[in-house]
Predict the structure.
Amino acid sequence: MSAAASSRGTTPQATESRRIVILRHAKADWPDVDDHERPLAERGRKDAPIAGRRLADAGIVPDLALCSTAARTRETWKLAVHELPQRPKTVYEDRLYEASLGELIAVLNETPDDVRDLLLVGHNPGMHALADALAGEAEGDLLPRMNRSGFPTASIAVIAFDGSWKGVEHGVGRLVQFWAPHE
């Protein structure tokens, strides 16, 4: 929230700068369970807190976190959020599991305009497709780096844009950060 909006006690304007933080779940194990119930592998349990520290070090504390209901995304978020200076409101969202690009954009379009920074914890190929689709521009070599990497587990992309969540569509934002734990 801007200082002016905060001092007036109002919600942010629809034209305010916002960020979409896209976090792919950490490395999952492959036990003989339903895909939705797959837990994190040992490497995932190590990488998830590192991703959380990366967010904290970058000064990113989301107003709202939307997390897939799959076991591996819930576990990733549980380990990552402990590294943040404060815990954002968290909603476990069924629609993020196996979501298409269109479904992900629809979820973003439903975000209330009092949310400035939104974090999504989900799965590939959707998380990579979303970051790529929204990034109409990118700083430096971030977009080629992100696309070359294939958006590995525990990766984070941060897309900045101006406007309302209802206006989120292809090319609306600028990729301002990309990080992968084993780059």
